[in-house]
Every structure is written in C-alpha cells, then in structure tokens.
Amino acid sequence: MSSINKTTKKQKGGAVKVPDGLKKNIDIPINQDVIVNELQNEDVDNPDPINNAFQNDTSTAISSHILPESSESQIVLIKSVIENVDVDCPASKDCIEQENNMKVCTEVSQVQVSESDSNIDENYLKAHRILSSKVNDPSNKLPSNRLEFKEIINRGPCRPVLKLYPRTLQSNSQRSFQKSWYDKFSWLEYSTVTDAAYCFSCRCFAGNEKNKGQIDTAFTVKGFKGWYRGIQCLQTHQTSLAHLNSVTALNNFLSAKSIDEVINESVTQQISKLENERLNNRKIMWRLVEVTVCLAKCGKPFRGHDESSHSFQKGLFKEFVELLSRYDMVLQNHFENGPKNASYTSNRIQNDIIYSIHSVLLQELKHNIQQVPIAIISDETSDVGHHEQLSIVVRYFSTALNRPIETFVDLKRMISVTAESIFKSLENVIEQFNLNWNSVIAVCFDGASTMAGNVAGVQAQCKMKNENILYVHCYAHCLNLTLMDAVGASTKNRQQNKMVFDFLGTVQFIYSYIEGSPIRHAIFERIAKENGSKLHTLKSSSQTRWACRSEAVKAIKSNYNVLLEALEEITEKCLISEMRAKGKGILHQMKTFEFIFCLTMMQPILEMILKVSTVLQTENLDLLTAMSIVKSLKSSLSSMRNSPQDEEFHKVFKKAVTMCEENNIIIPKIKNRKVSCKLDDTPLSQHTYQTQNEYIKIEVYFSTLDILMNSMNERFQQETVDIICAVAKLINLEFNIESLNLFQRFFHVVAENLEAEITILKNMKDTPRPIGNSVSTIHEWLDWLSIKGRADIFKQFLQVLRIFVVIPVTSCSCERTFSKLSIIKNKLRSTMSQDRLNSLLFLFVEQKMTANVNIDEVIDQFKLMVPNDRRLVL
C-alpha cells in the first residue's frame, strides 16, 4: 500500500498524464482522495485498471458509434474537408495517415449508386466503410477488446487541422468549428465524417458507474455542432462532474500498466496470454488464406452441395482445410479446442478472405500504375448466366521489369451495351485507381461501331476527355476480318468468290455430319485405324475463333481418303433417308475438282494467316513488330499473286490435279457458251475462258489473293501508322521534322532536347546497332539505356520508347479473361454473385500476383472488413 500512496503523492498538484497523442496536459484538477480510496478497494484477483478505479466493465464503458451511410451531403462534406487539410501545419502531422485514407474514402464516396444504374460496382460502398474504419475518427465505434481499446487511447484524440472547416447556417450566420479551440481544450476532438466535436475522455469512459445519468451525449454519441455558442458550451462541459470523472478514468487507465506490473505480475501474464492468442489466431488465418490462394489461382470451386460435417460433398475449401488439419497441429487444435462459433470455414468467411486478397492486390496494382502512362484495353462477352460482361485490362510500363505489362483490373456487368454505358464503366475504373484521362495514351477495342465509332463511339468519348488518345483497332480482329472478306463473308465478295465460300461451307458440313453422331464418328475412327492413318480431329469453322479455319481445313486434307471411305460406308449402311441423302451430298461435293483445288489453295494461305495471328496474340508485342509481320504477310501473298509466269498458281493447280487423279476425280472442261446477242456490261458477257486452268486462275486464285491484299491495306491503315514509321526511324537514330512533331504531341517530349540526344547517340560507339525493326530491337535499346545511368542522360529518347511499347496491339488479353471466365462461371456456378465473380476472376487471371500476395496484409484487411467485430482477435 506504501507504493500506492507514493504513486498518488507524485500525482498531487500536477497535471494528469496523457498519451503523446493528446499533445498537451489536461489542466483539470484531480481529486486525489478519490483515487486513493479506489486503489485501496481494488480487487487483487482481477487487477483491471478500469474496474479498480470505477468498477467499470470496458465493454459497457464504450459507447456505440455507427458510421453513417453515404449521402450526398456527406460526400460534399468529406470532399471539402480533405481538400482543405493544412499539410504544412505541425498539428496535422499526426493526421497524415487519416488524410491519406480519407482521400481514398472521398473518391469512393463520390460514386453515386442508384437503382437505375447497376453498372456501378457495389464494392464502392463496402470500400467506404472499410477505409473509414482505418481512420481514428470519433464517429467510429470503439472496440470492445481491451488491447484494441488501449491502442485507441494511446493514439489520443482525433484533431485534424484543416484550412477551412465546413460551414453551417446558425443564428443567421455561417458558423464552423475553430482550430484555435484545440489549444484551449486539450480533450477536444473533431470528426471530419460528421462535422461535429467530441470529448475524447467522455467518449472513451462514458459508461462508468459514476457517470450514469450525468454524461452529455452531445459530446459522446451525437457530436456537438453548436458552433455559435461553442466556447461557452465547451467550458461548461469541461467543469461538469461527468467530464471530471471521465478525465480521472482516463488518467488511471493510462497509468494502469505500470501499477499492474508493480502490484501483480498476473496482469503481464494475462496480456502475454492475449497476445499469444492473437498470434495463434493469425497463424490459423494464415493457413486459411493459403488454402484460399491455392484454390483461387487454380480457378477451382470452393463450396459443395452439402457442407455438413458428415457429408462427402463439402466442397474443396472445407476438404482442403480438414486434410491440412490432420497434419497441422495449429488447425487441429483450433477445430478441437477452439470456439465452435468461430471455426472460420463458413461461406461468409470464404467471401471475406477472397475479397481481402483481391483488395490487397488491387492496392498493389494501384501503386504500380500511379504516375505512369497507361493504355486501356476492353472487350465484352456474354457469360453462361446470360449476363453481358465487360472485361477491362490496363497496359503500363513496369520500371522494375523494364518491360510493358498487361494486367486485368475489373469485370463489369453491363445492363446496357451502349457506348455511353461502356464509357461510364471505363471512367469508373479510372476514378477507382485515382487516375486521370491525361495519363491514358491509347485505347484498344474491336471494330464494332459501338466501340470504334468516330462520332458517338467509346473511342470518340475517350478522345473528348483527352484529344491525344490513340485508338487502336485490335490487329488480331483486323486480320480475322480480312480473312472473312476473302472467304465471302460479305455479300459482295460472296458473289465474287463463290467457290471458296461454298468450299468452307462444305468443310463445316463435314464436321457437323461426322461429329454429330457417335456411330458415324466411330466408323471414321475405325477406318483410320485400319488404314494406319494418323487421325486428326475434325474442327468446327467459326467466325469468332481465329485459328479454327486453318485447323478445320488441315484436318480435312489430312483425313481426305479416310473421310471418303467413311462416307461411303455410312451412306451404304444408314437406315435414315435424310442422313443418307446428306452423306451422299457431302461425298459428291468432296469428289469435285473445285473442292480439291480450294483445299489445296486455301491450306497454305490459312497456315500463313494462322502464324501471323498467333504472333499478334502475344502480350509483349509492340506496334512496330506487329506492323512488320503484317507487311511480311502482305509480301508473301503478293509473291503468290505476282510470281513470274504464275509459277505459284501452277504449283497449286498441279497438286490439285494429282490429288484428283489419285482419287479418280474427273477434271471438268469449260463449256462453250453462246455469245449473247445483246450488249451489256457484265464481265461474263464480254469474256469467255478457253480452259479450266484459266478460269480457276482468274476467278478463284487471283480473286482470293486480291481480296485478301486489298482488305489488309484497308483495315490496317490506322491512325498509328505515322507513329510506327517515326519510331522505326528513331531506333535507327533517324528523324525528320514531322516525326519530332509527332513525338512532341503524343509522347510529351521536347523536340529540341530529343534531337540533341539523337545526335549524341549517333556519335557513341557502343549504342545498339541491330538490323531490322522488331520488338527485340526496342528491348535492346531499353536494356542499354537502363544501365550506367544512361536513363538520366537520354530522358527524352527513353520516354518515347517507353510510351510507344505501352500502346497496345490487340485486345487478346480480354479474350484470355473470357476463357478463364468460362472456367470460373460454368453451368454449376452460374448463380455466382458479381462481386465474388470479379474477385475470383482477378485471382485466377493474375496468378503470379495471387501467388506472391502478402498474407499479413490480407489478414489485416480481413480484420478491417468488419471493424472490431471479429470473434477471433487478430
């Protein structure tokens, strides 16, 4: 007891000791006799400082504060508060973390959710609540856990110093909170969320027994807003009995630790036990997060049909956790001895873990794309649930890897597919990542009028935000459209190239006929095995699958003889007249010279187009390489068309004739046609072909190649051509006035400085001197500039190369997300919510990021999703 008296003597006549967060001592006198009497009556078996001083339970002492829902007035309020934070003021240094978090909170709050516009992700409101919980704001609910409550006390009152506080009309005048009150009242704190003042001492210790019926809720729960009589009310509250009791409670709470350590070591042991329990809980969460990461990055389903304890269909998540618990003592002890209402394997916990991982990875991505130029790639598709989904991918330059990177960022469900709705979704993503349209250098879409329209399309609306944005029509789509033109997809070309159009129709008919029946397919497989032929699977022809035509034609050519025998046997044994007639029709078409010639001619053309299409779908491709390979394809087609003495045509024709002779197929002759008596302008009336060779060469062979080349010249003539040519000269250290002007406009460089850097590079001996224009050429320059401090010397030159490689070539990254979308949301998971789908798809697409996620940050984010309300202390 002597030690107690000695402690109280030190407190006599002095100010109350407060934490660093309070900044100043509280100049309120303390009744020392009250403290001595309470310390003499303390319970040694339960040395809780709060209970010792006031017989108060912390859980009842903490008042409840519920963060208000977002509203338009609060959005304006928070935005004005953040914009007016006085960063230079020393008093605001303790609020730096609050300020940064509130900026993010403000951006989220600016999103207005309405029932008519479901394109806006509902995660924004959830993020508002999560981010607000990070802030030491008086309006937030105080935690019931002792350790977390003590952390709040140690932080001290929330005292943001703003340049201008929100004003409200009171007593016919605009009034606001005054920062000078901080100096007069050290217990005062201010909420930027509710625009109200609170008493830190009373808010934390309002529920003790001595304050029952005396506490003023204006300073604890509702918040004080009477600015017009602020000094008077604050002074009145400061001298109130309830406030003095709260200050005494705060002072005792702050000194409780040292008293506990002196009086009884059991408190230290209890704190150590709680800390060990917290660390053990984090170990449990670590394993649950690892299981979630494993399933998510592999695209596997989590839940089962029956998740009861004795079921064999619990789902992969529970099965993995139970399997791990057999060999891991931490999980085994948790399930056997832990609380039964906190096993943390429910579907709600699964969703929270998934959302936490997604949130941490988005924060990492957000950090990576700040202050760097980006390109937006987007495309849409329909999922198995008949929902229209918009995939959004961002391409940016990674200084760590010294290479461009394409990253999937979001999947938006579209109720409307108008250009305005799609653009609004893109704009929401820009705002979500704290970006602006000036950082967007290019957009890449397909050629649909909604996306590519020059007047009201998405690309036109993007250029309204930034006129220097480049629009890239996906090169892979362009090549596919070129091929569709050549095979007669349009009515005009169908009449001009009818033979190739009929040929591809027959190819698709063969696939449907053979693969449409297991019996016919079995006959096809048996005959191939009997003949010792390697069976090539028949492929379906499709307008959306870029590689399908080449694969379908290649399979027909490889299995031609086997298909003839199979069709003959099927037509002989088939008992269904309709199927027998179809088989005979296919067999007749396959035995015509026209089919054989088209098969021989189209197979090498489609192979070349497939090779180019495959290269165009690579992620690290740049425009220079893309245009180079497209030009190579045009040169190859031109050489087939304009070979000396039509050698290439004669090779193809000879192969077709040989194939016909091997299969006893008659080559038809040209019939003499009577000359019309009337004059007309049709080509058929003015010219007659003397041989089948001449007819096939002009009407089929030349016609197909001409359509291909003309279509390529038309579709690949985009607005990026001039930039491609300028960069091609630049990497060879050549330039002209036009190219310098282009670089200055689109790449934001100083033309004079760039010209000087090129002149210096020309005279250096160790600069890269590669031959040709390719992605390896640009990468060699990037690698060369990244060493020995050259990046600081040749800043303008490096900036041009970095921005240029960020310009996308294709939208294939979106197509890849669609492939993984069909795995995540299949027929058995078609009712998945959009939030869960978006998170799981991100983790599945960005597998490398998912595998390397910081699990400690995930656990912290998981804890903040339900602030101070987790059953396990984390």
TrEMBL record:
Single GO molecular function: protein dimerization activity
One Pfam family from the record: DUF4371
Domain TTF-type: residue ranges: 173-273
Domain of life: Eukaryota
Ranges that cross the membrane: none
UniProt cross-references to InterPro entries, sorted A to Z: DUF4371 (IPR025398), HATC_C_dom (IPR008906), RNaseH-like_sf (IPR012337), Znf_TTF (IPR006580)
Matches recorded under SMART domains: ZnF_TTF (SM00597)
PANTHER family: OS05G0311600 PROTEIN, PTHR45749
Name of the protein described by the UniProt record: TTF-type domain-containing protein
